[in-house]
Amino acid sequence: MDLIAVFGLGHIGLPTAALFAKAGFEVIGVDINPDIVNLINQGISPIIEPGLDELLLEVVKKGKLKATGDGEYAARKANIMIMVVPTPLSADRSSDLSAVISASKTISKGLKKGDLVIVESTVPPTTCERIILPILEESGLKVSKDFGLVYTPERALPNNTLYEMTHNARVIGGIDEKSTERAITLYDKITKGEIVKVKDIVTAEMVKLMENTYRDTNIALANELAIICESLGIDAIDAIEAANYHPRVNLHIPGPGVGGHCLSIDPYFIVEMAEARGVHARLIRTARQINEEMPYHVLQLIKDALNDTGASIQDSNIGILGVAYKGNVADTRETPSKPLIDALIQEGAQVVVHDPYVKNEIIKAMGAEPVTLKEALKCDCIVLMTDHDEYREIEPNMIHGRVFICARPILQPEKFKEKGIIFKGVGRP
């Protein structure tokens, strides 16, 4: 059976490694962070993900998964290398492929005839052929003749990652037919979902970006409609729910912005490659702008609500509920709560934060003071930014201040307003 090396043991890489180990493969996990390597070798997951703790402990105890910081060793030992390293944005919103380049160089030093390299990292179209492939061929080997190359994007939702990895459709595109078929055989061992073969590697790269850009654009439309509805005194949530009864309409839900490592970043990869070819991705850029401005729309809701009480931000204590980018996860990457906190502090507010999933040191690094939920609900203004299940249980009698900004539509405005609380939300007049 093939020996697999997984490069990058983050939110996707570690579950991927564990699932292949569970399927009976010998797996070497590679990460540059020694703390992550040490935890994994003890069978302890550094990532909060349902079911991953138990799965990891099982495969480590059986000796099926070992972690190392020595990528060259892993590449020499393995005959299948899977790259799942991060691809963030640079300051100019271009793709930062430094981790991909580094992992490619490491793999090239251990590349052998008959090996297969699989890229799962989200990358701009043409990255595999334009950047990764030439680095791999520095080994002296030639693609197709000596080794294979495939791109397959993950499709997994935090807090449901293991299920989605084993049940969602898997898109696979290779540099040649042999590479593609070999990858299909491999992933068929860990997924019950349909495997979708596309005609080439660049198509597979584009598919992942299309999926997330669709969602980002849909959310931007919902957010713009929500702001318009606010100005007209219409409850956008009610209107969207009714509109979605149309058999060909599926509007997403508005909110305080878009976070996470995918939706807030992937559209820029399309923009980057399009504009390099003289094509202006106007809709995609506009959608990103709308979603990036939503935390500042929440800021304006706070200002307006406080103004209705005769107060100002500078004189107020603001309690933020949730800094994770989505509900019931600990992930704060690209969270819309961060620009809101920055803006509030700049305006002179005293900001405290409650989040049942996020560590206190992360909250402090954002410039806010971590507090209990009870303490946060005592603030002059409470701002619900993340739809954690715990927050769905908030009742009007738990709130001491007069202002509640609910940026996620998980609470009913009427019962708060009946108690004299100024309740505002995105899309809710």
TrEMBL record:
Residues 319-413 form the UDP-glucose/GDP-mannose dehydrogenase C-terminal domain. GO terms for biological process: polysaccharide biosynthetic process. InterPro entries: 6-PGluconate_DH-like_C_sf, NAD(P)-bd_dom_sf, UDP-Glc/GDP-Man, UDP-Glc/GDP-Man_DH_C, UDP-Glc/GDP-Man_DH_C_sf, UDP-Glc/GDP-Man_DH_dimer, UDP-Glc/GDP-Man_DH_N, UDP_ManNAc/GlcNAc_DH. Its EC number is 1.1.1.336. The keyword Oxidoreductase applies. It catalyses: UDP-N-acetyl-alpha-D-mannosamine + 2 NAD(+) + H2O = UDP-N-acetyl-alpha-D-mannosaminouronate + 2 NADH + 3 H(+). It is an enzyme of class 1 (oxidoreductase). Keywords: NAD, Oxidoreductase. Belongs to the UDP-glucose/GDP-mannose dehydrogenase family. Homotetramer; probably dimer of dimers. This is UDP-N-acetyl-D-mannosamine dehydrogenase. It comes from Methanothermobacter tenebrarum.
